[in-house]
Write a structure and sequence with these properties.
- The protein has 14 helices and 20 strands.
- By secondary structure, the protein is an alpha/beta fold.
- Strands 7, 8, 9, 10, 11, 14, 15, 16 and 18 form a nine-stranded mixed beta sheet that branches. A six-stranded mixed beta sheet has the order 1-6-5-2-4-3, covered by helices on one side. A three-stranded mixed beta sheet has the order 12-13-17.
- Strand 5, helix 2 and strand 6 form a beta-alpha-beta unit.
- The protein is elongated, with a radius of gyration of 22 Å.
Amino acid sequence: MIDVKIWNQESTDWRFVMERGGDCAPLTLRAVGPDHALVVNLGQDATAETARRGAAKAVKAVRELGAQSLLLDVTGIKRALGAEGLAAAAQGAELACYRQECWKEQEDKPFTLYIAGAEDMDAEAVLQRTRAVTRAVCLARDMTNRPVNMLTPALMAVTMAEAAEKAGVEVDILRKKQTRALGMGAYHAVGDSAAHPPRLIVLRWKGGKKGDAPIALVGKGVCFDTGGYNIKTGPGLKVMRSDMAGAAAVCAVVLALAENKVPINVTAVIPAVENRISPESMVPGDVVRSMSGKTIQINNTDAEGRLILADAITYAIQEEKAGRVVDIATLTGACANTLGHLTAGLVSNSDELCGQLLSSAQKTGEQYWRFPTFPEYKKMIESPVADLSNQSNDGCGAITAGMFLMEFAGDTPWVHVDIAGTAWTDQARREYQTVGATGAGVTTLYQLCADLADN
């Protein structure tokens, strides 16, 4: 737990100064003098991301020493980076204090961060806006870290609906009878494999002008993925509760937009399922009909995420009348193998929307890379008996998975975000991360929506 306050002469264990320049390497910590001062060097070319990482590094250092509070002097950051630097430092500090939910009998000691040196700016407003986004990241981490027996599709729907209603966000939960009536055969090919029935969760933040088409955020919500009859191995199964990180991200983004009252219409569409093995499970060779009318040959039951996303994207466009769509998913191991654990992959049919997302990411510190969509890749998902195959016949797994989804976006501007490598970490690769879920995509999708609202 962390509490962020403007400095008001209350006692602190440590004083924390962030400065630019100097001879030492960026993000170097050094203790100064008897008054417990800790200086973080941000380097000559300081950015909001280095401020975020520097603050996180300092907070982790003083917490390890047993401190329960810290005074952050942002004078240097303010001079160099203004409000953006203040927001980033506060966010890094708060994320560094994150602890995942635990069912042990233990007490988490509270930690207080005091902010000084921002008296001539509206620091309270900056911190309030930032806090909403940071809490959203922590909420996404919490949901993604949660064991599957505590987050079935039904429990996910209840959790998200309760949070949304408190935030003033409109909620619809569609059950099997409703989604069958809509013809969501690809979604049901996965969802009907488990004793826990699927749910289609729809969250609507109507902050923009009445009648303006919403941007749809579609999040993959596979609460647990065994792989189906193409079953995963032991090590792969271990963290498959994280296969709903995209769902957690889009829910968290909508809640943050509502808390900050961002003037834009945004709809989150979350297909929540489990991919298990049962007499009802799909098997390789099956052909199913999607909501769009396109038929899909199932050549790999572990390529289930694209099936539920295909119907969710169609739902967002046909039923929610979305003018733009961004889907986010832990979709392919191929993306993680290609880009590693610090960069997410993008596939898009729109240079404009993809460019806007990449521009927004420059403000958040998250890294993305756009994959090519050459016509030759489309041939890799052709099927002799259906409109599409759910598995590539010639590699390029991350690209072909995206191009599979592109078929369901049609002419609607669309971006696919593959966070398979960035949603979970076995070691903190950024100072503000902790082992487990990272909350990948939350800050960038929030920033994208805020930027679209500004424009």
